User: Fold these one by one.
Assistant:
Number 1:
Amino acid sequence: MLEFPAQVKQALEIAGGFNGKLSRSFDNVLICGLGGSGIGGTILSQLIAEKCPKPISATKDYTIPAFVDENTLVIACSYSGNTEETLEALEAAISAGAQIACITSGGKLLKMAGENNWPVITIPSGYPPRSAFGYSIVQLFRLSEAFGLIDGGWKAEMKSAIEKIESDIDAIRLKAKELAQKLYGTMPIIYSSNWLEGVGTRWRQQINENAKMLCWHHYYPEMNHNELVGWRTENKDLAVLILKSNFDHKRVAKRMELSEVVYRKYTPNLNIIQAKGSTKIEQALYLIHLGDWMSVELADLIGADSTEVDVIDWLKGELAKF
């Protein structure tokens, strides 16, 4: 977490050196990636949805949608370069004739990119994938700019976001510690508007991996059409976290306000987190950084090793036998 601002600054320098080209135009985009490598694709697609002229989808599976063809740009994002789901999806994309671009630190993906002369951005290795988010999200923005999906204004917004995080870091860490204390011994539930759903996913993932806790997330307005009905029983072990933004649709903001009335009937643990910043990029990075710190503070309270992911390593080992 301490390295995040510096990581984004370095990532911007790496992005500045990219001059890869595509051989032809495309009609749609598919971003392939999982876990810490994949969450950036979801967040990117939601942050640029109102500006991007072409549809962007994110997949987190071995397979690809049927729409993928020679008119599709597939961005493979695997920090290690060896994520088996991403590599298998990539093979399917190749068979479908899609154009390929990559973001990785090495592994099979980097080798394939070199052999096939695909546009690739190589990021520093040696981190757990979830700790390299600053590197990967910046490169996703860079590829989006390079291939005509967005203009270059994102760079100034990214720099401004990091400057604000650096100037507000003491308050962020204090807020993170306070939230962790409130979440200790509970089952967290994260709610946000649709455009912040990827950020809410990041909060869940960080709580899962760093604090070794189960939790879940959902988003408005969709949850008002299903999950809200599930609030029927008092449970003081549940803790609600609502990520709010002044970019939320006005009707979504009202839905959040009214839904709070329901939550308070069944749990006293309700926490409102207001995003800070003047742009969507600034607010998303603020919330992500706050959530990252909170998950580590929570791990410390629990006595968990925030870097340990033994069960994932075990699973990979068992899968390698087949």
Note: The chain is about 50% helix and 15% strand.
Number 2:
Amino acid sequence: MPQKTILKGLTLDELRQWVVQQGWERFRADQIFSWLYTKRATSFQEMTDIGKAVRQRLGEIADVGLLPVLKTVTSAETGTVKFLLGLRDGNTVECVYIPEKNRRTVCLSSQVGCPLGCTFCATGQMGFRRNLAAWEILEQLLVVERTIGQKLTNVVFMGMGEPFLNYQEVMRAADLISDERGISISHRKIVISTVGIVGSIRRMAEEERPYRLAISLNAADDDTRTQIMPINRRYKIHELLEAAKYYYEKTRRRVTFEYVLIRGVNDRKRDAERLVQLLRGFPCKINLIPYNETVPEYQRPSLEHVERFSRWLRPLPAPIIVRWSRGRDIRAACGQLWSEGMQERTPSPFASSGETSPA
């Protein structure tokens, strides 16, 4: 039996071409696109302005693209909801809904696991399984909207995986999320976070992608950063900063630097002084993120020390925001819900000295 075409993840132009290939009128694509992304349909039978015969045929040759929810956990403290979704090959993936005042944010995953092996990250302990297709990324968002019964306002690609190692599918998903004819979340409300894949940062700038860029920095010297982020063996901090500055020069959009504060590792006064020296004169934003304890070897600094570290950064003119984990009580850090399934771990290709990223 021929494999069905998954329509979720196709652009409107691609969907129009596909519809015409089936011998139908071009406008059918616009109807299907609206049902998938504006009305959030979960079956072809819901598409009531499409004739019954066409709907029946759609069911025979096409697939809406749904993923089952295997588990949800809700934070009693913040209302954060973590989802574990089942993929069709037997893998699982996580996404997180984060309500905050007038913002409703979804944190999306881009890969099953991650190949980068950051030592403080639960996903990094999983190893890498595969990239997600654009439709699997989109379905995370749509699952959350169907569950909460509201439209999301913000999207962050900060879940499982490294978005820039799945660049094309992530950008396809972001383009569909921001398409005004469908999901229609403003590109200004979409943030793509990377550990610092230099070539993709430059590519994003050159392609004039309108999305906001966040870089997970986490240390201001190469020795410390390499200790906790093996990717630093491939892209040293100076090279990463050059790419970030290139991005700003091309787009005039500030980069957000994420700095996860880990007790005794990167939260000392000399670490703050190095960070000030590193980012002095560079238009940017800094998010200080007290560590969400996921790996036993690392601990979160005290509230007093986090505030002290923030004060040490005051010589910088950049906005400095402390972002506490929302959902700590439900183990909402990426990879934690997955790890409860005790799935087999595969090793990181960057865990040993001398190996480099495939990017």
Note: The domain at 69-339 is CATH 3.20.20.70 (TIM Barrel).
Number 3:
Amino acid sequence: MSKKNARILLFFVFAARGTSFLFSKRLLADLAPFSILAVRFLLSFLVLSLVFSKKILRLSRDSLRGGLILGILYTLVMTLEMYGLRLIDSGVSSLIENMAIVLVPLFTAALIRKWPEKRTMLCAFLAVAGVGFLSLTQSESPNGALGIFLVIMAAVCYAVCIMATARVSREGDPLTIGILQLGTMGVLSLAASLLTTGHVTFPQTGSQWLFMLLLVLLCSSFGFAFQPLGQKYLPAEEAAVMTVINPLTASILGIFAAGENITLLKIIGYILILLALYLYNARKRNAEKDDEH
């Protein structure tokens, strides 16, 4: 796959993932977080296993290891996301979680023991300032501060996931890894649901099943499973840049579909975070042009 096609694939992957915040928020009104995750990911694993049965039967040790690693890491991300999403707006949750775009280069710099570039530090500062303004918009919500904290931790874990995905997708078959990742997430969520509530609650109404099926087919079967395939051909930092599509989709849907309030503080927070993402993206484009020359 060419880099151009990989970018196109990741564009649609992150857009699909962005819709999950709205669908999950609707389901959280009636279902427990781990029940939603268990049903969502087990059904997604079943669908993809049937469609790509030959790949599953020929899975390698590297693919199995990669799927298990990403499944464990993403279960942690989704757990933090779901419990945070119950307490704050979906658009705010998505924007904060996708601070991963500036966390990835910071973590990378720490791993190689090299001080981050000044522009990276500026982007990180703007993103943190934006989170601060968004936090103020949730101050009147019950447990809003806790929701912000949980989503910030989800962002930290998400950055680790992006870096881990870049590595394991090069060691095994990326699509097989993505499918096994969903199966691992489903099994772990099922176990967590049984341990915390003693049972799994399934959707009961037509609208609940509609939101669940959208999560299964659009957000998980496509959004999660095909991310390793796209990332196989792109650097981890470039994939992190493209995650801006995720919060933009979630924010637009939150405002126009869920009727979430848009306030001055929220606008300032949105602008600061999006500015951080734009500046970082501009740095990547300039670096690519320099490489070409």
Note: The chain has one domain: 3-292.
Number 4:
Amino acid sequence: MNSLAFTQRFAAGLAALKGVSWPEARRRYDTLCQQFAPPDPVGLSVSDERVANVAVRRFSPQEATSEAVLYVHGGGFTLGSVRSHHGIAASLADQLRHEVISVDYRLAPEATYAEMLSDCQAVANAISPIAFTGDSAGGRLVMDLAKRLNAKVPLGLIYPPVEGLSEDTLGPDAPLLSRADVLSLCPFYLYPEAQPTRRPPSLAQEVLAVEHDPLTAPLEAAVAEWHKAGAEVGYRCASSMVHGALHAHALLPDMQNAWQDFCQALAVRLTR
């Protein structure tokens, strides 16, 4: 599969979400994302549980260490689940050789951003993860969670919306995610207790971006600011890829290469 074929299939799936109820849109989104996920790695154990009264999916590789990594899925704060992002979390667990706990946090518009963040915090407090990871909206939640907890653990951030997004800071429109799409999501996470700041969410981070994404330009600017503030930030950008392509990482060579580099770099940080 190439990037164009993925974009066309994913765009058609997103178009099918319009005009239906939130429960139906979420069911269709889960099905759409699952179409691109590879089979689970050999020896991976998967179970659905509740941790601190929050639904989670636990991914346990063979001979994994007892220390867990927290994973928070994307989906624009309104979509996504442990099912839609199963393939990503399974691959993360396999490559890190650590247990991964994927959080099925509440979603907007039924839940506020503060409630989403509260779900992630409850799980983090219960499992004491050695790293926080998240993609897209999940990356934003991970950044705010790390700041709230003053966490000293590494972060793995995959094309997250950073602070200060505006018409002036966003990159150009791209397939699957336009500038208008991004700006429409800002109200979901601009909650009253948020404190606008360029302070690094962690002093140790690995960041993955994609070439065609309006979020990449502000993310690269944030990475530069984090470097200036003393953070160690590893950064890579998947050539020719679009927002959401991580779902098809096993089918898209450029995405797979960037994803493996990201996971390997994060794995090294976990050994320090």
Note: Strands lie at 45-51, 54-60, 65-72, 98-103, 131-135, 155-158, 204-212, 232-242.
